[in-house]
């Protein structure tokens, strides 16, 4: 593979910055775009993302920018790393400058709140069918990626050669990239695990113990598999990094925003106060509503997702939701 002349990363939050740092270790020129000029100016002056990743110093080949337009003719690969609610808006920004020479990958884990669409569906609706698309997902906390701690992810594309191309951009000793052709499964795994992580945080906040956490992860995986298959995903995807791997990480470590959010709710803190306490986007909030709707549309039983959604919409308290799950009738164990 020929080395790219430059790579453009759209999104200068913690995850976007971490991935820009990982790519910079491959010695490409990396341009990290942020929509907030004041934030980008701080990145330029301090040569780090002081707010999110203060210990990760930018190398000389990583540039923070506010204008990506002049770069579009010289970059081929564009990495989008914005929250799901800003994904379509970001596509609209780049749409006038996209050509058949560009490739697009995103590391956003979520679904479009207004429509319930998976993000590849949003991308196709905005950009058409001629731009190669890929998605990056897996167990990957931003702070550990920024610190070059060993991480493994999945990169999925309908065209497996495109997945291999994107994997080669990222692949290094501290960031292993595996490939898949299951974009649906990889995206469902990345989005719905956030809802299960809220449940795990609630259970831990209620002091329900390690046994409960393990049960939630296992039964949560079952729910993810059922929905993923109903939407066209492949069962084996959910046993890999983008499914089980990401789920275990997000449910068991306090670096997880969604887990911390659920824990705060279990302490009796309001939804708004819990979000403020986390201090960053909690993707599982919107994902719970969308996932619940998708489950109903496709006739998929997802009791954990259902009860998390009830908590988030004020229909039950965290304790009531936990008690309702425990009161369910016994049934055969199956994925």
UniProtKB/TrEMBL annotation:
Similarity field: Belongs to the NAD-dependent glycerol-3-phosphate dehydrogenase family.
Residues bound to sn-glycerol 3-phosphate: 109, 138, 140, 193, 246, 256-258
Organism: Beggiatoa alba B18LD
Gene Ontology BP, a term: glycerol-3-phosphate catabolic process
Superkingdom of the source species: Bacteria
Protein's cellular compartments: Cytoplasm
Coiled-coil stretches: none
Record-linked SUPFAM superfamilies: 6-phosphogluconate dehydrogenase C-terminal domain-like, NAD(P)-binding Rossmann-fold domains
Catalytic activity, reaction form: sn-glycerol 3-phosphate + NADP(+) = dihydroxyacetone phosphate + NADPH + H(+); sn-glycerol 3-phosphate + NAD(+) = dihydroxyacetone phosphate + NADH + H(+)
Pfam families per the UniProt record, alphabetical: NAD_Gly3P_dh_C, NAD_Gly3P_dh_N
Swiss-Prot/TrEMBL keywords: Cytoplasm, Lipid biosynthesis, Lipid metabolism, NAD, NADP, Nucleotide-binding, Oxidoreductase, Phospholipid biosynthesis, Phospholipid metabolism
Enzyme nomenclature, EC number: 1.1.1.94
A single cellular component GO annotation: cytosol
Record pathway: Membrane lipid metabolism; glycerophospholipid metabolism
Name recorded for this polypeptide: Glycerol-3-phosphate dehydrogenase [NAD(P)+]
Domain (Glycerol-3-phosphate dehydrogenase NAD-dependent C-terminal): residue spans on this chain: 182-322
Record function comment: Catalyzes the reduction of the glycolytic intermediate dihydroxyacetone phosphate (DHAP) to sn-glycerol 3-phosphate (G3P), the key precursor for phospholipid synthesis.
NCBIfam families, per the entry: PRK00094.1-2, PRK00094.1-4
Binding positions (NADPH): 14-15, 35, 109, 142, 257, 281, 283
């Amino acid at each position: 593979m020929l080395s790219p002349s430059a790579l453009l990363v759209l999104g200068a939050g913690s995850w976007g910055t971490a991935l820009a740092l990982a790519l910079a270790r491959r010695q490409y020129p990396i341009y990290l775009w942020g929509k907030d000029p004041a934030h980008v100016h701080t990145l330029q002056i301090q040569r780090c993302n002081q707010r999110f990743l203060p210990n990760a110093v930018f190398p000389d080949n990583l540039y923070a920018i506010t204008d990506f337009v002049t770069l579009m003719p010289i970059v081929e690969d564009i990495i989008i790393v914005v929250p799901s609610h800003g994904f379509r808006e970001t596509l609209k920004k780049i749409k006038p400058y996209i050509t058949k020479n560009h490739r697009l990958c995103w590391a956003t884990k979520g679904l479009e709140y207004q429509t319930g669409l998976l993000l590849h569906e949003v991308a196709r609706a905005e950009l058409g069918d001629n731009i190669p698309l890929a998605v990056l997902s897996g167990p990957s906390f931003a702070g550990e990626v920024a610190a070059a701690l060993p991480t493994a992810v999945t990169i999925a594309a309908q065209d497996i050669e495109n997945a291999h191309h994107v994997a080669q951009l990222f692949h290094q000793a501290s960031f292993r990239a595996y490939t898949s052709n299951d974009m649906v499964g990889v995206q469902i795994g990345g989005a719905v695990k956030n809802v299960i992580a809220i449940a795990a945080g609630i259970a831990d906040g209620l002091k329900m113990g390690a046994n409960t956490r393990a049960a939630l992860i296992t039964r949560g995986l079952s729910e993810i598999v059922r929905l993923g298959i109903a939407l066209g995903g492949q069962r084996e995807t959910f046993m890999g990094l983008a499914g089980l791997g990401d789920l275990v990480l997000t449910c068991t470590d306090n670096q997880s925003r969604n887990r911390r959010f659920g824990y705060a709710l279990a302490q009796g803190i309001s939804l708004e106060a819990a979000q403020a306490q986390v201090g960053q986007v909690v993707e599982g909030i919107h994902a719970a509503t969308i996932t619940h709707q998708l489950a109903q549309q496709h006739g998929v039983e997802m009791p954990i997702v259902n009860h998390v959604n009830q908590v988030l919409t004020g229909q039950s308290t965290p304790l009531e939701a936990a008690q309702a799950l425990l009161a369910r009738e016994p049934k055969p164990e199956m994925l």
